[in-house]
Amino acid sequence: MNNILEISNLSKSYKDFSLTDLNLTLERGYIMGFIGPNGAGKSTTIKLIMNLLRKDSGIIKIFGLDNISHERTVKEKIGFVYDENHFYEELTTEEMKNILCRFYKSWDNNSFNKYLAEFSIPKDKKIKALSKGMKMKYSLAIALSHNAELIIMDEPTSGLDPVFRSEMLDILHSVIQDENKAIFFSTHITTDLEKIADYITFINNGRIIFSKEKDEILESYKIVKGDKSLLHKDNSNYFINIRENSFGFEALTNNSAQITKVFGDKVLIERASLEDIMVYSIRSDKR
C-alpha cells in the first residue's frame, strides 16, 4: 500500500464555515506541506484525520484502513508534533515518557534514548524548563520511538528561531529517508516547505486550491512585473491577481507562456515563491 493517507470528498459544516469536498493523497516516503491562511480549514482537516471531529461526509483512509472503524490500529502508527505543548509540565522528560510509552504496543525504549541523545535532550530536565524548540524535538522523539509511520505536524516550527528551524528541517529530512514513513506538515512558514516538501496542498475557505508536486507548482506560477499602461480588460484575465502601485503593476500568473506571447519583453517574469502564490490567490478569492 503506497498511499499512507487518502482523503476523498471530505466535508464538514459549521454555522459559519464549511470544509467542502477535500481530496488528497500522500504516499510513503514523501513530505506533504499543508498551507493556507488562518481559518482556511487546516486544523479542522487534521482533527478530522485524527477522528477528533465527526465528519459530515467523505472517506479518510490511513494505511489503507478507515480512520474511524480502525481508529486504535491507525493511531498506534501515527506520531503527532503540535505547536502547543500537551505534556505535564512538572514531569521530567523521562517521567513523561514512562506515562506515554504504555499507550503504544511497539514502543522502543532504545530508540527513545537514542533520539534524546541525538537531540541533546536531558532525561532529568522538567518539561517546563525546555525551550519551545526542545519541546518540539521531544515530541518528535516520542513519535519516532513508537515506530510511527505517519508523522502529523501542526505548525511545528512556529515561533522558533532560524537556527532551530533549520535543525528541525534537517531532522525531518533524515526521518523521511526511511521510505516507509510520510510526513503531513501543516504550517504558515512556506519557506520551510520550499526546502523539504515534496508535495504542497493549498487550502482556502475550506476548499483545496491545489494539491501537487512542489516543483510543478513552483515551475507553473510566475510573478509578472510591468508598467500599468500595459494592462487592459482583454489581457487582465491572464493573471490570477494584480497589485498596482505608483511604479507599475505586479501580478501572479500560472500561464507564463501566454504572458510572453502577449507582452513579449515589455514585462519582467520572475519565479514565484509559495508565499507569493498563497497571498495572491487569497487576494483573488476576496475580490
| Separate helix tally | 10
- Reading side by side through the largest sheet, how are the strands ordered? 6-7-8-3-9-10
Quaternary state reads single chain
**Shape, per Cα inertia axes:** elongated
CATH topology of the largest domain: Rossmann fold
Helix and strand sequence: EEEHEEHEHHHEHEHEEHEEEHEH
CATH class of the largest domain: Alpha Beta
The radius of gyration is 21 Å
Q: Which class do the helix and strand fractions yield?
A: alpha/beta
CATH superfamily of the largest domain: P-loop containing nucleotide triphosphate hydrolases
The parts where pLDDT drops under 50 for at least 5 residues are: none
Number of domains: 2
Let me know the average pLDDT: 90
